[in-house]
């Protein structure tokens, strides 16, 4: 923002220029537009989920208020299915398992790559190569099948617990620890494990926490892997895959002689119950993500 400096009898005073005010106005309008585009679809889904099914089915356009009055029959239909609560628990299990195992592997891998060794350039090059090129779905399925993971929840946790970017971010977190601190710990007799967990990890925990949050979000929203590796093991379906199945089954509710229009609400209800936990927890981690995401991506 440009500023003009005016000198007067009372000293030096800074005042914003016209161009600076215009820049602030334009930036504010852009942010309002982004907020509008983000909030309106969520509000539409929320209001539609508590509307009357028949009235909502006949309505076109945005839903800003409940159509036909408040109606929670859609939520009753969804939560009357015990598989919903079970899939919630399964999804939490996947999130905790993926984030926990990923944290361990990312910390170990990041620590190794942060050390000066002859093989460090080779390992970093391999990680960068894996970020740009992937074997694809069929080779991944063959590998998991040969390991005996198909049909097991481990097929969801193990392959998705870490990735090259997470390991590199942890490496950058350890590289940010002052070398003097590391050398002092080594002179005091600290080995690799005490050095990693007691000295370097506490100082780089902010950036490492970003990898945990990202892993948890990806695990919460994942459904494709379960549809490939757990097609018949319905009890191990995560919430997102179960929602996809419920939505598909309720598309033909009009084919019945006396259609239950409340089933039309299910497609909105399941979106709300799948999104609400993320919306409620994300604000608590937003500041940490903003502070550490860019640092881990650019500093090495």
Helical segment count: 14
Judged by helices, strands and strand pairing, the structural class is mainly alpha
End-to-end span in angstroms?
31 Å
Helix and strand run: EEHHHHHHHHHHHHHH
Helix amount? 55-70%
> How confident overall, as mean pLDDT?
82
Share in β-strands: under 5%
The number of E-state strands comes to: 2
**Low-confidence runs (pLDDT<50, min 5 residues)?**
1-15, 294-300
Main sheet: strands, sense, barrel: 2 strands, antiparallel
Strand order of the largest sheet: 1-2
How would you briefly describe this protein structure?
By secondary structure, the chain is mainly alpha-helical. The protein has helices at 18-49, 53-58, 73-79, 82-114, 120-132, 137-146, 154-160, 164-175, 179-187, 192-203, 205-221, 224-229, 239-249, 266-298; strands spanning 3-8, 11-16. 26% of the residues are buried.
Overview of the molecule:
With 300 residues, the chain is mainly α. The chain has a two-stranded antiparallel ribbon with strand order 1-2. The protein is globular and about 80 Å long.
SSE arrangement:
Blueprint (H helix, E strand, L loop, with lengths): L2 E6 L2 E6 L1 H32 L3 H6 L14 H7 L2 H33 L5 H13 L4 H10 L7 H7 L3 H12 L3 H9 L4 H12 L1 H17 L2 H6 L9 H11 L16 H33 L2
Antiparallel strand pairs: 1-2
Helix pairs in contact: 1-14, 4-7, 4-8, 4-11, 4-13, 5-8, 8-11, 11-14, 13-14
Which key features would you list for this structure?
300 residues; mainly alpha; two-stranded antiparallel sheet; 14 helices; disordered N terminus; disordered C terminus
């Amino acid at each position: 923002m440009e500023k003009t400096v005016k000198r007067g009898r009372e000293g030096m005073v800074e005042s914003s220029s016209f161009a600076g005010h215009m820049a602030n106005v334009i930036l504010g309008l852009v942010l309002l537009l982004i907020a509008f585009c983000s909030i309106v679809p969520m509000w539409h889904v929320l209001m539609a989920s508590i509307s009357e099914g028949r009235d909502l089915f006949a309505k076109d356009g945005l839903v800003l208020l409940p159509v036909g009055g408040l109606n929670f029959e859609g939520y009753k239909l969804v939560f009357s299915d015990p598989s919903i609560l079970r899939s919630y628990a399964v999804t939490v299990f996947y999130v905790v398992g993926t984030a926990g195992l990923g944290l361990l592997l990312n910390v170990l891998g990041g620590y190794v790559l942060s050390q000066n060794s002859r093989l460090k350039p080779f390992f970093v090059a391999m990680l960068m190569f894996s970020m740009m090129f992937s074997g694809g779905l069929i080779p991944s399925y063959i590998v998991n099948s040969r390991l005996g993971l198909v049909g097991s929840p481990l097929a969801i946790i193990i392959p998705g617990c870490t990735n090259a970017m997470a390991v590199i971010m942890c490496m950058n977190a350890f590289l940010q620890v002052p070398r003097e601190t590391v050398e002092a710990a080594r002179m005091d007799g600290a080995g690799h494990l005490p050095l990693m967990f007691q000295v370097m990890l506490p100082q780089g925990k902010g950036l490492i926490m970003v990898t945990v949050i990202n892993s948890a979000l990806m695990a919460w929203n994942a459904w494709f892997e379960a549809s490939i590796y757990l097609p018949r093991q319905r009890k191990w379906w995560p919430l997102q895959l179960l929602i996809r199945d419920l939505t598909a089954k309720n598309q033909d509710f009009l084919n019945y002689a006396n259609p239950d229009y409340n089933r039309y609400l299910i497609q909105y209800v399941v979106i709300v119950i799948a999104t609400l936990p993320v919306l409620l927890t994300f604000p608590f981690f937003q500041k940490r993500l903003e502070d550490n995401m860019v640092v881990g991506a650019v500093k090495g």
